[in-house]
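Researcher: Sequence of Uma2 family endonuclease follows. Predict its structure.
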Amino acid sequence: MTTELETFCTPEGGWTTGDLDRLPDDNRRRELLDGILLMPPPPRTSHQKVTARLTAALDDMSPDGYVAVHGVEVRVSNSRTFVPDGVVLRVTGDDDGHRHWFAPSEVVIAVEVVSKGTETIDRVLKPALYAQAGIPYYWRIETEGALEVVTYRIDAVNEVYTETGRWTKFVDTGEPFPINLPISRITPRVR
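Model: Prediction complete. Tokens:
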């Protein structure tokens, strides 16, 4: 009998996206950083609500040729893959809607919702890696206190993001397409 611990022993040479594809589909979020398996804990309910409301709002605003989703992988390389909290993707005619991973070249906006325990990852590590992968826009949602959306555009020459705005009432930007999003629309409702 194989125990769960044995199942998750690091393969010789490190983990690959092929190794991830062979694991059971158990709804766990798995990411790879240079062959090291990362298994972040499931997001809290408030985090999930912000993510769901944001991706629904962005999907509603997206022009033809774009779609906003959450829970999909962005495969940077065979040994590096991440699951942003949300993404806006360019869609093509051959996309059947059944894919669970996308290349960085298909991602227009990567979104991370900062939670307790992910501050450094969402504010420093992931933006650096997403910029290095060439993803044109990065949005960071700060959740401590009132929601704040911080938007970035890539400086492709230097492979870093430049801040383009801090939004506490509404996001009003023309990049990558016109977006006028009241922050209240992504704020979880109090019941």
